[in-house]
Amino acid sequence: MRCYSLSMIVILSVLVWGGCGARKAVPVDTLDGRAVGELVRLEGRLSSHGSSPFPVLVLELDDGGVVLLESKTVKEELRRLADMRVAVEGDVSQPMGERRVLEVVRYELVRLPSGELPLIGSVSFDGDHCILRTREGKRYWLRGDLVKVLAEYAGARVWVTGTLDDPGDAGAPRGAAPYWVIGYGVLAEAGQ
Fold it and tell me: Which residues make Cβ contacts (< 8 Å) with residue 133, sequence separation at least 6?
C-alpha cells in the first residue's frame, strides 16, 4: 500500500509540475495593451539604432511601431540578423520611456530579404562530410562551393540557404539530406 501511495504522489507531481512551466506565446501585432510579464510572439524586421558603445536592438513592426529588444540569451545572435525578418518570443518588460520592451527568449528567422527561408543549425562533421544539424535534430549534408568556408565554422551556429539536392546520392552520410548551399551567415561562433 505504501509503495502504491508513493507512486501516485510521484505521478501526480510530474503531471502538476510538468504543466505549470508550459507557457505558450500569444501571437500579437503590437505590445499595446499587453501586461508586463506576458509571453508574446511578434514578427518584424530587426534593426540596430544608435552608435557604439550603446547600440539599441529594435524590432520594426509592420504597422510602423518599434519595440526595443533585450535578451540574456540570444542578443548577440539577433544583432547578427540586422535587416532580416524574424519572429521573436519573449516576456513584455517595463517600458523604457515611451518605448515598449520585450525580453526575448527565442527567435525564428522568418525569411531573408530575398524572400528565402533559411535553415538554422550547428556545423559539424560526419567523416569528411560537412553537416548542418538543426535544433529539431534534422541533419543536412552541406554541398557546394560555400562548404569550404562553412567548414571553418565547425561548432558554430549558422543559417544557410539553398536547395535540397538529389536524396539518392550514394555518397550521402546516413540520415543526412543533401543540401546545396548558396548563402550563409554566422549567428554564433563555436563555444558561444
Answer: 121, 122, 124, 139, 140
Q: Which domain holds residue 87?
A: 26-111
Q: What's the rounded Cα separation, in Å, for the pair 78 and 24?
A: 21
d(CA 153, CA 147): 10
Q: Domain for residue 19, yes or no?
A: no
85, amino acid identity: R
Phi, psi angles (nearest 5°) of residue 67: -120, 130
Report residue 149: phi and psi, to 5°. Answer: -75, -45
Q: What does DSSP assign to residue 168?
A: T
Q: Say if residue 69's pLDDT is above 90.
A: yes
Q: How many residues does the chain have?
A: 192
Span 149-185, pLDDT tens digits: 999 999 999 999 999 887 666 677 888 999 999 999 9
